[in-house]
## 1
Amino acid sequence: MNAITATAADIPETPTRGLWADAWRRVFRNRLALFMSLIVLLYVLVALFVAFGWLANDWDQSVGGSYEPPSTTNMLGTDIFGLSVLRKTLYGTKISMTVALVAALISLAIGVPLGAMAGYFRGIVDEIIVWIYSTLSSIPGLLLVMAFAFVLKDKSLFGQPLRGITVVYLALGLTSWVGICRLIRGEVIKHKQRDYVAAARAYGCPRWRIILLHLIPNVSHLILIDFSLRFVGFIHAEVILSFLGLGVKDEPSWGVMIDDARLELSRDVWWQMAAATAAIFVVSLALNIVSDALRDALDPKLRE
Amino acid sequence: MWNYVVRRLLYTPLIVIGVLLVTFLLFVVVQGDLSTEIAGRSASAETIAEIRAEYGWDKPLFINIEGMKQHGIEALFDSQFVKHFVDTVTFDFGRSRASKQRISELLWDGAGPSLCLTLPMFVGLLSTSLSIALIIAFARGTIWDTILVVICVLGMSLPSLAFILLGQYFLAYKLGWFPIFGYEPGWSGAKFLTLPVLIGIIAGLGSDVRFYRTVMLDEIRADYIRTAYAKGVSTRRVLFVHLLKNALIPVITSVVLAIPFLFLGSLLLERFFGIPGLGYMMIEAIGNRDFKVISAMTFIISVLFVFGNLATDICYALVDPRISLH
């Protein structure tokens, strides 16, 4: 319809950049966001190094006495068992990044296909999917995550007992797909009217192909924005779950460290608390700024 | 419009049934038979059988065909699902495993302390963050706007546990301005509640101010604001009369969505400051593996939420003529 009513003035004189090229340019122009993405990258690298066993794999070896304050030998001091707080913090990075990444992937893997199906097929499929997510979104988030984690704990899946970190990312992933599902459904309903979908249908493209190769790539920027916004939430949720005893056990995570610190503070032992809080604070700050920049760069409503 | 209201009313039972199914799925199907865990290691087979009968784990999940063959057609519905359904709808959640109290009474007792904590916190947070957001809307584009936004992002990045731990450590333990721990009903409890309320407000400010700022800035670009300025309305009047009135719609939504959390209380705050509200109970129930309490709490709070949502949607339909079209 636009093509009919467009006049010469509507056609831009210079060729415009595509969405992603323009987004790249914007993120690069934003120095702060660039710096913050380097910090995020650093966290990811630390997590990878720990995962490969190159870093902090000796966190369970004692390096000194109980509650030694920070010094040149133990930069962040020691905990009650004489374990290095620095190593525990580094190891916690791996836990935190894994939880956030896997939980985000689970929620995308559920939310995106369901949203696309609801938006594309409409009718009874749509009714059922909307009913499921309306129900889930009627249960307050933290309550739902806690209920899931509580029930999943010590159950077995495919013969493997569920414990620790697996429970955390399953509980978070299975409960947090509603937002992206709703978003994708709305976008797909809009895109379905567009000419490119009609064209794909006209030349006999199967429906799963239209959804997978035509519609989802066109809403992928929303998926990226949602992913980056959710990441911080998952990091904070891991802390709360581990603190409540529903999460990580027998491994140092930032939540477990803060839980330990609850009793240490009254003895003026502040370093474990400070290390875990600082680790969370820096990565959340960086992610908040990066996701803001991504949203500014990718949201068509905010594009000039 | 009535079409919309009626449809919305009819949809509500469907959601309540959905919530019921979720609690059934979680706490009956996935949870499964815990009789050996409850009975302990050295329990006899009779004790285990007794516990299974008490919790209904000896019955089939949906329909009882065996029972029907033996006792006739009414025994067909003698199943775990029907029991869960009837118990939940009649608010008869049974007794807590740990304290042996009726769960419905426990929930009733816990709501008071939770509201004492969250109601002042909620009112304080809403009024503070709205005023700050209005100030930002007034000072948009200046250095003050930037500074406030930076503070908000910094505040959002700190985990809520850190706010609580640091607040309790410095203000109560180190400086001794507030009691560290405790609760008393009535006005004498105010001294115990001041610090948790304060911490709750400060911890929530970052994300709230940022949200309301976006709402205000969305509105401030609207045509009616330009019109108001153009016809010579003073800035103060534009902000507090024209802008605030229109920005209230998203604000009301977020207020209504917060109502169930008022009952739940702030889980972590209640735990740290020893306030015997619903959040505290929830954490205790997790520790005691008291799944019935968690299931009941999930259902009740969700139902409150569903009705809160219903009320807002109907209010919108009554107030905003644009909504009736959908």
## 2
Amino acid sequence: MNNTQGERGTDEAVLMPAVDVVEDASGISLVADLPGVAKDALRLHVEADQLIIEGVLGLEVPDGLQLTHQEVPTMRYRRVFTLSNELDPERVSAAFEQGVLRLRIPRVQQAQPRRIRIDVG
Amino acid sequence: MVWNVYPRDLMAELERLQRGYPQSLDHNASIRGSGRSRYPALNVGGTPESVEIYAFAPGLDPARIELLLDRGVLTIAGERPDDLPRDDARTAVHIGERFAGRFRRVVNLPEDADPESVAASYRDGVLHISVQRRVASAPRRINVT
């Protein structure tokens, strides 16, 4: 598995994308701003109960460019969210357009209420 | 700045703190402010031939971005729609960090920037503006005799 934080031992700074997270009865919608990330430079994965959003800025800059004012200081975005177990990471749908990622994470489809067994000793 | 009474995301709060740094710490202070907390974030740089401005402005309709160049001052303005639903009995807004509303950012161009040769493009949510420098001001070596 790739170590997306860069070389081991370096603590490369990452940009934290701004997000909106909205929940309704059928699941969660997450919108994240990742300007400068092309579709193939976006990496979205679920590990255990963590949703990980990563992207690499791919700006085309002219040769010899020297920045004099920099508000976006690094090239990587990364943000991690912990999912709860009523959400279904297998059915996450995603759209990515003009630097805006839109994720839909539905609730698990089991309609039946969970039965809680009570053991009487 | 709006503070959440009940922070839900520690990292987001930390970032908000970071954005709220006093602007006086910015050694490159401009009369129009550093704009660190504003949308869109700007990177500005140059080459000997051109001035390059990158505005990190995701989720815009490029046809509706207003770009104005007036007496060496470049203004980037527009509006980003608010697509956050209202909190009600059925929906809960857990995190609402993304910018929405009207924005305006201003960049002072150097004196040799040529207002007649400006190109702008919008790709992956980044607006890139390239302003050529006037040829006369390309660096020249001056011989000392």
## 3
Amino acid sequence: MIDVRRVSKRFAGRGGRAVAALVDVDLRVQAGELVMVTGPSGSGKSTLLFTLGAMLKPTSGEVFLGDTSLYRVSPGRRAELRRTRLAFVFQTFNLIPYLTCLANVALAASLAGRARAASLDRARTLLGRLGLGARLHHRPAELSVGERQRAALCRSLVNDPEVLLADEPTGNLDEPMTDEVMRLLADLRDGGLTIVMATHNLRVARLGTRVVALREGRVADDWPSVLPQAAA
Amino acid sequence: MRTPLWLAWRELARRRGALLVAVGTLAALVALCVAVELLARARESSLAAAADNLGPGLLVTLPGTTSRDLAAGTPGPASLAVEVAARLRREPAGAITAVDGRLLLRLAVAGRPTPVLGVEPREVRSPFGELRRLGQRETALGVELARGLGKRRGDLLTIEGHDFAVAAVLPSSGTPEDVAAFVPLRRSQEIAGAPGAVNVLQVYPRPATDLAALAADLRARHPGLAILSTGRGEPAEAEMSRRVARHRVAVYATVALAVAICLLVWSHLNASERRRELAILVAVGARASTLMALLMARGALVGIGGGLAGYLLGMAVALARDPQAAAHVAWAPDLLVLAPVAAAMLSVLGTPRSRSAGLSGSTCGHCRTDPCAGRPADRWFPAQVSRACCPSAGRATSTASPATTTATPATPAAPRCSRPSRTPVATATRAVTNCR
């Protein structure tokens, strides 16, 4: 499903000193996996996820989504992949502040080319399924943190992606909410969705089917989770 | 296009303060242009009326005829071709507003040789205003002639053996017409035995027309005719009008430049402020063209709003400044269309393309503050807001942490965001600042 081949990413630092966020990362993710990318802060988790999400071009190496090399296609094609096959959930939700919960979710569907009515229907259905049926017309600022995260999850799922990339989606949540989000993710994985999730929380990391540990931009460990079914 | 327009509309509706500042600034600048234009049009209109009252700008008469001949009432026995007046009315395009035909004769008035003008009363515009319609047996006398003959309105007068009643004594014009008698054109042609004949054409040019250039043009087109200037002050007026027009253009250009700069600065600031929102759109799959369309739609909406408000404001200013003159030009559909269209075009042209080009979706992920945090509604969830804005104090927030250059990557780094301020506005400002 996802094939990362010797990907490195360096950022220009101050004084001309390059900062390496990823160094020769190799990673293969199979369809239906729930891969937890873990590691200390600054280890490159988010950079890896952005690279997988067709949002951050690596300095070297290649990222394949199926047969498609993400950074060899045009920016327009990459945008299309982000709309249709990839989805991203951020730690800080990144909902558009001036749109309602419903409009935030429907917007992603509209950008993918769905008709307005169909987008709204789809968004309404998803939000209802995730328990936000009563919050459709609330703006993000009027939602609780957990509700915002669920709304962000709805937005990422509205176009039926093949891969969900989640950058510490539980980072802002308390334990009950974290468990709720993890249950949702486990359900989605059971439905065939491939999920790559970054977390620095080991308790959460153990809920995946596989754990990839990054350290100083390199894959330090890659092992199956000891409790793959714990989320269920 | 619907999605960007809808998004732009929703954003503007949400950020009414910023919208009001932008539209207000634009409206003030557009109003300046509209007020200048309306007042200038009002001035031109009154100048045109005044110029018409000064009489014709040019006289077209028979070859060899001089101004002195015209003053003496002796242009000669020949007549101008009947189609000349019609041709003059058609050319040069738009420079001539009216052409009046006259028959100038020297006849015996009360036994004294006197210039007699056969005029078409309805078409005549003279320094003393429009002549009232003369009956076939009526005449109007110049003030000097009436004084010399001792005639007043209602007296009888003999012209070349024909009896006329004095219908009016015209006020002084300071021209040879003060010593002339006016009779209906057809009657003068009957007296002269030349039906349909005219020997002087009075040409009324459009205000602000360069008379010298018009005369030269007419001479070139009609080499067989004498073109005489009446010297009614048109050249000076035309020069003044040209100068005023140049000043107007300079004012418009300056205002357009100011509008463009304001819009450019405003659009750039806005796009910077909204960089994270744009990055979110990129992350959910928006193309660069969609972002561009969004920014342009926003600019167009602001431009249309500012243009319309500016037109109304400018109209109000013009009416307040010069109510009488501006009243009949205040409703200007061309300006009503032009002001918003020009403002929208400037606004769209000022849209910062570079802000949307090359924007990465990762931009919105690099910030660890919730874009919704710090808004007034967040006062309902103070604890969550606090966590959302600074979720993990002691954790480095940049994805570009120096993995290879830091000896201990797990060492806590200073958090990039800080606790939310007490005021929502300050908090929102900080949240935005943190995202840059």
